[in-house]
């Protein structure tokens, strides 16, 4: 569906700050986030418990592609992400109380993995900590009228997020990968709400991502012994694919097939009158398919290998 030449053009769509650690020397990869990241792994069930592979992409997600297709040196992955997660449930409530926020996920890491138990004997110089969060924080709050301003509220979110990054740092983390929130203003969920909602969340997303980049820079300035720190901007890849949907073979970039929205038995399932599920950009109102995750993972692995 996506030619190698066009794919190579997308791989330049990132912002990175390089350090000593590369993807090829990363032995342990710890992921934190929401439905775009989770694979259903439950660390509380044990370090070596099975990975259910429950994703929102109707196939592997970016973490699974990194840990599988683009795994260079048998990097071991621990995915603590939780579908529906926000930074802190006390600031932005998730869709149900059982969802683990970033605060909860970092607590799990601190309680279970920080001690480097058997099967997870990581060290500061061979481990990468990835955080992709904010989709639900912005998506659930962009229309709030009970805050001083969206920008001020985002500052509160950033302070809370980096208080958790600080905990990871105190536990020994020295290399970080931060992903920006993708252009969810172009997801069916927002498009269906009309132009005003699209305009509001577009501004909110831009502010959140700007504050994320600034917060990463500030964190670096106050922590001089950090190693690899990368801010990967997901927006150029999403926007390039969406702007050129027909060229890339997507049959629909603004909607989805109702028959596929809860997942399908196979990654290439076709239920008439819809095209095959893999031909769509969006699986449902908010989640892109595994094809997009594959491109993201390829670009991330390339970035981290630079």
UniProtKB/TrEMBL annotation:
GO terms for molecular function: hydrolase activity, acting on ester bonds. Residues 1-19 form the signal peptide. It comes from the Eukaryota. It holds the Pfam family Lipase_GDSL. Coiled coil: none annotated. This is Carbohydrate esterase family 16 protein. Keywords: Hydrolase, Signal.
């Amino acid at each position: 569906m996506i030619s190698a030449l066009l794919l190579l053009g997308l791989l330049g769509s990132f912002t990175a700050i390089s350090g000593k650690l590369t993807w090829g020397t990363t032995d342990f990869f710890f992921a934190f986030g929401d439905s775009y990241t989770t694979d259903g792994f439950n660390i509380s069930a044990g370090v070596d418990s099975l990975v259910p592979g429950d994703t929102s992409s109707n196939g592997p997600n970016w973490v699974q592609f990194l840990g599988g297709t683009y795994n260079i040196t048998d990097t071991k992955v621990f995915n603590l992400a939780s579908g529906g997660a926000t930074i802190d449930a006390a600031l932005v409530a998730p869709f149900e109380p059982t969802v683990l926020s970033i605060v909860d996920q970092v607590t799990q890491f601190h309680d279970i993995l920080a001690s480097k138990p058997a099967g997870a004997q990581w060290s500061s110089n061979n481990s990468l900590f990835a955080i992709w969060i904010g989709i639900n924080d912005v998506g659930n709050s962009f229309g709030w009228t009970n805050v001083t301003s969206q920008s001020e509220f985002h500052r509160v979110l950033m302070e809370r997020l980096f208080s958790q990054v600080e905990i990871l740092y105190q536990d020994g983390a020295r290399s970080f990968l931060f992903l920006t929130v993708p252009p969810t203003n172009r997801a069916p969920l927002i498009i269906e709400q009309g132009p005003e909602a699209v305009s509001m969340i577009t501004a909110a997303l831009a502010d959140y991502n700007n504050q994320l980049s600034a917060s990463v820079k500030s964190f670096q300035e106050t922590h001089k012994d950090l190693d690899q720190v990368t801010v990967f901007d997901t927006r150029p890849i999403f926007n390039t694919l969406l702007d050129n949907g027909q060229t890339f073979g997507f049959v629909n970039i603004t909607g989805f097939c109702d028959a596929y929205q809860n997942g399908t038995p196979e990654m290439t399932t076709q239920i008439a009158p819809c095209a095959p599920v893999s031909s769509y950009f969006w699986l449902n109102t908010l989640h892109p398919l595994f094809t997009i995750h594959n491109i993201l993972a390829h670009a991330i692995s390339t970035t981290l290998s630079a």
